[in-house]
Each structure stands twice: as C-alpha cells, then as structure tokens.
Amino acid sequence: MKLSNAECGLLRAELLEAAQNWQPDAPPSRDADVFFPSAHIRALALDRPLVIGMRGAGKSFWSEVLTNDGLRSTVTRFVKGYDKLVHVGSIRWDQDPFKTRYPGSDVLTDGLQRGLEPRLLWLTLILNELRGVCVQRGIAVSLPEVSQGWGNVLSWARQHSDEIRQVFQQLNDTLVRDGQVALVVMDALDRMAAQLAQSVDCLRGLLQLLLDARQLKGLRFKVFLREDMTHMPSVLSFPDASKLINEAVHLHWTREDIYALHWHKLAQESTKFQQLLEQHFGPSEQSRYGYWHRLFMQSPPDETSLTAVLKLLAPPYMGSNARKGHVYSWWYKHLADGKSRTSPRSFAASLREALNASHKSNVNHVLIPAAIEHGVRIASEVRVKELGEDYFWVGTALAAFNDRLTPISVQEIYGVWNGIGVEGVPTPRLIRDQCVSKQVFVPWDETDRLISPSQKLRDTLVELGILILRDEDTRLDMPDIYRLGYRIRKRGGVSPRR
Fold first, then answer.
1. Per-residue pLDDT tens for 461-474?
2. Which regions of the chain carry the CATH code 1.10.10?
3. pLDDT (tens digit per residue) in 368-378
4. What is the Cα–Cα distance from 459 to 316, expressed in whole angstroms?
5. Taking a C-beta distance cutoff of 8 angstroms, is the pair 43, 57 a contact?
6. CB contact at 8 A, 267 and 277
7. How far apart are CA 83 and CA 35, in angstroms?
8. Could you tell me which residues are beta bridge partners of residue 131?
9. Rounded Cα distance, 461 and 142, in Å
10. Peptide bond into 407 cis (omega under 30)
11. Coil, strand or helix at 452
12. Burial degree of 144 (CB within 10 A; 0-12, 13-18, 19+)
C-alpha cells in the first residue's frame, strides 16, 4: 500500500525529528537504546578480553553499557555468564579530566624510568579498581590509597610486586569458589600517555597481562582498542602475542545489522513508523526494554523483511530501473570503506540528511534517491573530518590524488609521493617526521627494510580501508565514504559536492 503525499510528509517529519535527536554511539540512557547486533554478542563474551574496532563501530558504546549497572541487565539477556558478575570496574582515561583517578603522563614517565614493569603498572591500576571487592571478601590490600598520590602508589607497587600478584590470585580463587566473576573494562587507552614510548610500553604490558590472565576464571577483562594500536610491531614484541591478536574480536556491522538498528531506533521515537510496521508486519512487543518489533529481534535479521521496510519509505531503485542499483544495497555500499565496513554513525548521518533533503520535495515517498545520494556525500564529509582527528597524516598522503580521476595507477601515485612536495621531502618521510614530532604512532613498520616507504604508506592506507587495490595490485581506488569527502572524482561515480 502506497502512502499519500500528505501521509509521506507527516511520517517524514516525525522520522526527521527522531533522526536529528539520535547519535548512534552516544552514551545510552535507557534499555531501549541498547541494540544487539548478532556479531557483537561474541565481542561481549567474558572469555574474549580484547575487542578491536574502527571509529564509530561501538567501542565506547559497549564500554558505557558494561559499566552501567542499569543498562548491563540488557546484556545478561543475550550473553552467557553476566548473571555471575558481582562487580564491574572501569579504567577509562577519557573519564578522568583532572588526572586524579589514574596516573598522569609525568607520573607514568617517572614510574617507568624508575623500573616499574608495565605489566605491574596494570596490575596496580586493576587492584585499585578492585580494592572494594577484596575488602568485602576479607582479602587484605596494603596498596596505598590514591589520595596519597599516584607517585607514592606506583613506588609502593614497584617494591611489593609479589604481594600484588598474591592478592590477585587470592581474589580469583575466592571468586571461583563462590561461582562469581569480577569484570574490569578498559577503554580510551590512546589518551593514557603523552609520549609515544610510554604508549608503546604501556600497551604492550597490557596485552601481555591479558595473555597471562587467560586462565583466570574469576577475574575477567574487556579491553577496547582502536585497530591501528595493534599494528605496531613494537607493541606485539613479546612471546605468543599472535595468539592474543588471533583470538581478538573485531566489532563490525553487517548490512542487515545496520538497517535493523536504524529501523528499531526510528520506531522507538515515531508512533507513525510503529503503526506502519505493525500494519505490514504484524504486532510488536512493548516492555521495559522499549518498543521492539519481531523484525529486529531475529539473529541474524531477515534481509527480505528489512528490504520490505525500506520499500515502504523509498522507491526500490536509485534510478528508473535496476540499472543504477537497488536502494537497499546501493546505500550501504556507498557508505562502506575499502574493507566493506560501515558504521552506524555514517549511516545515521546519511539518513538524517536524506530525510531533510527529501522534506524539501513534495513526492509520495518518504525518501527519494537524489536525497539519499546527497546524504552519502554529507556522511562522507563527516567521516573524513573524523578520520583527520584520528590520523592527521591521511590528508597529506591523499593530496597525491588531487585533480586526478580514480582509479589511479599505483606507479603514478608512487611518483607523486616520491617527488619533492611543498615541504621539500617525499611524502612518506614527511609523514614519518610529523608523527615523530607529534609523539604518535608511525603508521607502518620502520624496521622492515625490504619494503619501500611508498609501499608501506600504500599498504597502511589499504589496511585502514581508505584505499582499495584493484587489477592485480596495479591500480588504487578509493571508496565513496572517503572519496567524496576529499572531493576526488571517479569515472562514472557519484560526484563530490562542489
């Protein structure tokens, strides 16, 4: 059944209001804001300590959910073992604006220079977080209070490492005996240290600890990391590091998960959309967890049903027929990076702009193809801005693509990168020097002398999903989620905004 122009207008206005008020990765405030993609259930499993994800994939979102006593009950519905939790602690440098809850960079530097082993540093931080759990179980903790200063705490820890380890073992044994589990969640680790050497040492120490702690059943850890933080050889320079990395869970969103999330979120806020879903797909469920339709409770979500929902809002094709593409597949594809990944943040931005642009038209569809295309352009610009915040050097590397049509031959790009630019040095060397100056990770392995700097830069951009290798590695292409934001043209592709 087709909606009239007036009905489309009213529904569009309600959906636009809902989309404008929602940020997918914002800290959730209620149970209804917690949506479980099937792929994320494994990431939340208690026996998977390391979770890796691109920006916007949900690392901070899940960190917030796990450390919120009220919201964590939703996790218990889907993930085994959470009913045994007696305590959840958190170590998050983004929640310590005054640098008092955790040691500041100067204290870390001093402690490490005085011989504090990075693994012991983490044991100390975790023990401080679990101090109350120990006391409740009659386990003595001699660790000084943080109020005495982190310098004093770390100095004590350096001299009492055996005692700290004994407390950990005693606490684990007690929890196992009682059938209980204590969880410590760690996030925003890129904000821990101001200097690169500190960051490398601390991260390596944490990963070593996670490897050592795999046999513990009463103490569990959940560490959320940006994907680039595990690419540095110096970070992984310890025995059996590959075991930990191979067992890590990568946060990702399937196309079906992305659509199910957004239809679910819109239905939370739009009565008209709820009614439309119930009219076409049957009754919904209203509970303490909010509005849930059966379409979004399936694992994995049913693609046929999700496509049918979109057809209630938009025409089936991006053009007059299937030649330009089906809206359902086209939309996700043009928001995906070089590894076929997209994030809720990108889709939400495109949806919001598409609804706003469609609002200006008087047609019998809630969403029109031209508006969806516009939404993709805006989402790309947002994603490029975020990318620059995480990897300042990407813009320098991609300047080689200016005034060129993609795909471009690899050799042509190498020629530009190896030429003398405005800074007077080849692009890979310029990026390397800037990273060293800013005390951030150089984005490739500098110890490998067999691969040229240009190839290292290329491979890094491919690994991050910013570039795509085509035609037996002879040409470089760029996915639209980055290409449009950088204003780079493509033969036969969507045109960037002028």
1. 999 999 999 999 89
2. 391-490
3. 999 999 999 99
4. 37
5. no
6. yes
7. 19
8. none
9. 48
10. yes
11. coil
12. middle
Which of these, 71, 72, 157, lies nearest to 121 by C-alpha position? 157
DSSP string over 135-181 = HHTT----PPPGGG-HHHHHHHHHH-HHHHHHHHHHHHHHHHHTT-E
Which residue is associated with the tokens 């540093």?
121
Token code pair at residue 449: 């002398």
Instruction: Assess contact for 374 and 498: CB atoms under 8 A.
Output: no
Scanning the structure block, which residue is given the tokens 């959309």? Answer: 273
CATH number of 38-250: 3.40.50
Whether the CB-CB separation of 186 and 223 falls below 8 Å is answered with: yes
Q: Which of 451, 425, 448, 446 shows the shortest CA–CA distance to 436?
A: 446
The crossing angle, in degrees rounded to 10, of helices 5-20 and 344-359 is: 140
CB 109 within 8 A of CB 134: no
Fold that domain 391-490 belongs to in CATH: Arc Repressor Mutant, subunit A (1.10.10)
Parallel, antiparallel, or unpaired for β 50-53 and 85-92? unpaired
Q: What's the rounded mean pLDDT across residues 313-317? A: 95
Tokens representing 317 are 């094709």
Residues with Cβ within 8 Å of residue 260, at least 6 apart in sequence: 35, 37, 295, 296, 301, 306
pLDDT at 422 over 60: no
Q: Dihedral through CA 75, CA 76, CA 80, CA 84, nearest 10?
A: 130
The pTM assigned to this predicted structure is 0.89
369 near 323, Cβ under 8 Å?
A: no
Task: Give start and end residues of each alpha helix (H) in 294-368.
Answer: 303-313, 327-333, 344-359
**Domain limits, CATH 3.40.50, in the chain:** 38-250
Report the alpha-carbon distance of residue 310 to residue 301 in Å, rounded: 14
Which H or E run includes 484? Answer: none
